[in-house]
Specification:
Number of domains: 2
Largest sheet: 7 strands, mixed
Low-confidence stretches: none
Bound molecules: pyridoxal-5'-phosphate
Distance between the termini: 13 Å
Shape: globular
CATH architecture of the largest domain: 3-Layer(aba) Sandwich
Structural class: alpha/beta
Strand content: 5-15%
CATH superfamily of the largest domain: Type I PLP-dependent aspartate aminotransferase-like (Major domain)
Strand order of the largest sheet: 1-9-8-5-4-2-3
Length: 432
């Protein structure tokens, strides 16, 4: 019986021994000197809690200053500094009224903290199919919204990809869905020339080290709506110090929500706020450098017939802090061989089709805590989806070397796949 090409093993041995890449894909850029200076000054005072700064004595906390500066950067009226991106998401959901019985739609190409935030709020995730460009599929979104009775869409701009936000906003309006944007990977991304994360009731950002602003852990929630932000501030654990915030609704307005809003502590501390503030002016430059490195590699890959790159919609500027590409039609064994061959040449690829979760990469069918639904289209897309982090410490020459290694190994494997498929076809023809 003829063996299918998909069953065949592919050697893990690279097609070429050289060049090898020696850079570190997870390396962070050092923080600016000013961040170190502020952190040191703060440590000397011991006043690391945001509410130790008393406005009655003319003091404004680092956290409050960060909120004012981030709100301006994000183009929104209000900002709230919190403990993590995941906490920001759960807080946004709670402040939007999500709880037990609420169904929350979310795209199925996402990271585990997104369904985690929905569950943390007591709500139920409803996973929606994605399209070839890794964006949420609008047809499936409308269908699932109708079938599930969901009232909320948690839209994750996963890996910095910005979808057609205008189309999504209009669909949310038609279907009565509250939109919350997850900008953990999209801090610095643009939609029609303005910052992404301006359309949802809330947008949540992350300042965890692997995102675009680095305070180890941390999150920032932005919004325009006074009542929604009042609830978020109280939820974050403001006690009665909500007047010590940097970009908040008026205190009298917040006071109205005090009695009805539980405290689920998750404030940001002064140290993190202090190291973040000097990074805000650097964000646009970081995005430009990331996109430059990303485009060197993406342009080289785009020339290969085997490779499919996600296409951003017109009007979107993504952040190329990572790169995704697919190998449509490749057998899974060949994708696994590419991951191994690239690794042996120093290039670290993450594979969304891998049988087990790995590092930061996991897939919806591995989340036993999330209601399972068939997502055949997503599964086929994720089966050959590869993901690569781009470090800001890489030089353009590094990017060219990475591109060359990937091009060589993809080309070699693609040649093997074609030869085997041709061989199988000939075998069938001579038998038939
Ligand atoms: C990192 C990330 C989060 C969670 O952020 P943390 O700060 O790690 O809690 C949420 N969504 C996406 C898409 C992320 O990449």
């Amino acid at each position: 019986m003829a063996q299918e090409a998909s069953d065949m093993a592919f050697s893990p041995e690279p097609a070429h021994a050289a060049p090898i890449f020696e850079g570190d894909f997870t390396a962070q850029e050092p923080l600016p000197r000013e961040a170190a200076a502020r952190a040191t000054a703060l440590l000397a005072t011991g006043r690391l809690h945001r509410y130790t700064a008393d406005p009655a004595r003319g003091e404004i906390s680092e956290a409050a200053r960060l909120e004012a500066e981030f709100a301006a950067l994000a183009g929104r009226r209000h900002a709230l500094a919190v403990a993590s991106g995941g906490y920001a998401l759960a807080t946004a959901l709670r402040a939007a009224g999500a709880g037990p019985g609420t169904r929350v739609l979310t795209g199925s190409f996402t990271l585990a903290p997104v369904p985690g935030a929905i569950l943390a709020a007591g709500a139920t995730p409803v996973l929606v199919e994605i399209d070839d460009n890794l964006a949420i599929d609008l047809e499936d979104l409308a269908a699932k919204a109708r079938e599930s009775g969901a009232t909320c869409l948690l839209l994750s701009h996963m890996r910095g990809h910005v979808p057609d936000i205008d189309a999504i906003v209009s669909l949310c309006e038609t279907m009565g869905l509250t939109l919350i944007e997850d900008c953990a990977h999209a801090t610095g991304a643009l939609w029609r020339g303005r910052p992404a994360g301006r359309h949802g009731l809330f947008a949540a950002h992350s300042t965890q080290s692997y995102k675009h602003l680095n305070s180890g852990e941390g999150g920032l929630l932005v919004a325009d709506d006074d009542d929604a932000m009042a609830r978020a501030i109280l939820l974050s654990g403001s006690y009665m110090f909500f007047d010590r915030h940097g970009a908040a609704p008026p205190a009298a307005h917040i006071r109205r929500h005090v009695a009805a809003t539980p405290n689920i502590s998750g404030r940001m501390d002064e140290l993190r706020a202090a190291v973040l503030r000097p990074q805000l002016p650097l964000l646009a430059g970081r995005v430009a450098r990331w996109n430059g490195l990303h485009d060197i590699i993406a342009t080289a890959l785009a020339a290969l017939p085997a490779v499919a790159l996600p296409k951003p919609p017109e009007g979107a500027v993504r952040v190329g802090s990572s790169l995704q590409f697919r190998l449509p039609g490749w057998p899974s064994a060949a994708v696994a061989a590419l991951v191994e061959r690239a690794r042996r040449r120093g290039v670290v690829l993450k594979w969304f089709g891998a049988p087990r979760p790995h590092g930061y990469t996991s897939r919806h069918d591995m989340w036993r805590h999330v209601p399972r639904i068939p997502l055949p289209r997503t599964d086929e897309i994720l089966r050959t989806l590869l993901d690569m982090r781009i470090s800001l410490l890489f030089t353009p020459d590094d990017a060219r070397r990475i591109a060359r290694i990937l091009v060589e190994e993809i080309d070699a494997l693609d040649g093997e796949i074609r030869r085997r498929q041709g061989h199988l076809r000939r075998q069938r023809l001579t038998k038939g």
